[in-house]
TrEMBL record:
PANTHER family: ARMADILLO REPEAT-CONTAINING PROTEIN 6
Transmembrane segments: none
Name of the protein: Armadillo repeat-containing protein 6-like
Family matches, as Gene3D superfamilies: Leucine-rich Repeat Variant
PROSITE patterns reported in the protein's UniProt record: ARM_REPEAT
GO BP field: hematopoietic progenitor cell differentiation
Keyword Acetylation listed: no
Extent of the ARM repeats: 289-333
Species for this entry: Crassostrea virginica (Eastern oyster)
This protein's UniProt keywords: Repeat
């Protein structure tokens, strides 16, 4: 992990540079930056503005601290207009960068705003402005959240259950404090967040932005992105969202309400793909008509890149179930996937997801492999490899798709080889170290020569007893 320092440490070095080496403020700051970066220090949390240092190296009061002190004064005097203006200025300061937010956090901004939320929870205009400032403050700083804050924000979900504007802001704050923070996620879940979010999806189904931020928050609960925790609860949370929140049915029903809103459909699909972590969940989506619904929406909005990405992602996730694979093919899924890969052939992410989805659909299924080959899927895969030669993920997924297509149907090998598959795969093998296993598997199953390296070699010494 990168080293970190405090703002005070950085300021001391700048002051020393100016006092002892007679540097200008700009030179002193640049020298301090070079010193710390050469030592592997991450300076993202440090304000490095040379205009904040006086001629003697002393630092002026930071603008964010000035704004915060002014806000504290307004809050103590209970001047509503000044409070609104102070909250707005604090938000603008916090939106500048992480360093400003860290300074605000270290200056007790979290506690000041939390108390304001508590005091204004029945005053909607002030509450909304306070929440907006608090969202900006906690962007990238989930560690600021404390137990009191968790309980208060869940209380706000109930208190303002009929106010979509407040709900959106509260949920955005919860999402912010869950990103890269496993402890916060687990605490929220234990306090009943999943059931509350599921209820909001039902009660606010006509509110586009509320539906979107709620789906995003459900997704964050399934993340495993906190490097400080050896084992997260991502899988368990996904299972709870499905079993306790009945989320799959709710989300599939919502898909029917937003056929003309690609941005909403994209979030709904992304959420489903995070939740289908068990074979029976994939089956449940199919039993509720989800496959037809997803593929129809995919077809209708195939020109939309975001829909294409998320539809491919959710189809790939669902295709882990053998029955779903059959349903995807029967509902014209292969045609839609290949059409999307062709229409967006310059987009590496769609090429990668398309190849990965095809690889999942044809795995251990000769009938599906036949369908892909009859629709010239092999040509689409090789074209993707030609276009995205420098993208390791595209090359890897295309190799896997090729391997799965021919592993149980050797009659397709010649069709690939005639189009130059061997040289394309060998090029991917040379260019991308991360593609070694997949490229060798594809070459092996195509009947081509594979160069295998000896990973380690014994030294002809006896084993220790």
């Amino acid at each position: 992990m990168a080293k970190v320092i405090t703002q005070q440490t950085f300021d001391d070095v700048v002051r020393e540079n100016m006092a002892e080496f007679e540097m200008s403020a700009e030179e002193a700051v640049n020298d301090a930056k070079e010193q710390f970066q050469s030592q592997g220090v991450n300076l993202l949390n440090i304000i490095q503005d040379p205009t904040l240092y006086g001629a003697d190296g002393e630092k002026k009061e930071l603008p964010v601290v000035t704004v915060l002190n002014s806000l504290k004064s307004s809050l103590s005097e209970n001047n509503e207009q000044e409070i609104l203006e102070g909250l707005s200025r604090l938000k603008l300061e916090c939106d500048k960068d992480l360093a400003v937010r860290c300074t605000a956090g270290n200056s007790d901004a979290y506690s000041v705003l939390l108390k304001a939320v508590e005091n204004f929870k029945d005053n909607v205009p002030l509450l909304k402005q306070t929440l907006t400032a608090k969202i900006s403050l906690t962007n990238g700083q989930p560690d600021l959240l404390d137990n009191k804050g968790k309980e208060l924000f869940l209380e706000l979900l109930d208190l303002h259950s009929s106010n979509p504007d407040v709900l959106e802001l509260v949920i955005l704050f919860i999402r912010n404090t869950c990103i890269r923070h496993e402890e916060n996620r687990q605490s929220y879940v234990k306090l009943g967040l999943i059931e509350k979010l599921a209820s909001i999806l039902k009660s606010q189904r006509n509110q586009t932005t509320v539906v979107m931020v709620t789906c995003q928050t459900l997704q964050v609960l399934t993340f495993d992105d906190d490097i400080r925790v050896p084992f997260g609860q991502a899988h368990e949370h996904a299972k709870m969202i499905v079993t306790e929140g009945n989320a799959l049915k709710i989300i599939l029903d919502l898909c029917k309400d937003f056929p003309d809103k690609p941005e909403v459909m994209s979030e709904l699909f992304a959420t489903i793909s995070k939740l289908v972590v068990r074979n029976e969940f994939c089956q449940a989506v199919m039993d509720m008509g989800g496959i037809h619904l997803i593929l129809q929406a995919f077809q209708d909005s195939i020109a939309n890149k975001d829909i294409a990405k998320q539809a491919l992602s959710v189809t790939k996730a669902l295709a882990g179930n053998d029955n779903v694979k059959e349903a995807v093919v029967q509902n014209g899924g292969v045609q839609v996937i290949l059409a999307a890969m062709t229409k967006h052939q310059a987009n590496p992410r769609i090429a990668e997801l398309g190849a990965a989805t095809l690889a999942a659909i044809v795995l251990r299924n000769q009938g599906n492999s036949k369908q892909v080959m009859e629709l010239n899927g092999h040509q689409t895969l090789l074209q993707a490899m030609k276009i995205h030669t420098q993208d390791a993920n595209v090359q890897k997924q295309c190799c896997m798709a090729i391997r799965n297509l021919v592993s149980r149907a050797r009659e397709y090998c010649d069709l690939f080889l005639e189009l130059g598959a061997e040289s394309l795969i060998q090029e991917a093998q040379r260019n991308h170290k991360s593609c070694q296993d997949e490229s060798k598997a594809a070459l092996r199953d195509l009947g081509c020569e594979v160069h295998l390296e000896e990973r380690w070699k014994g030294e002809k010494q006896g084993l220790a007893q």
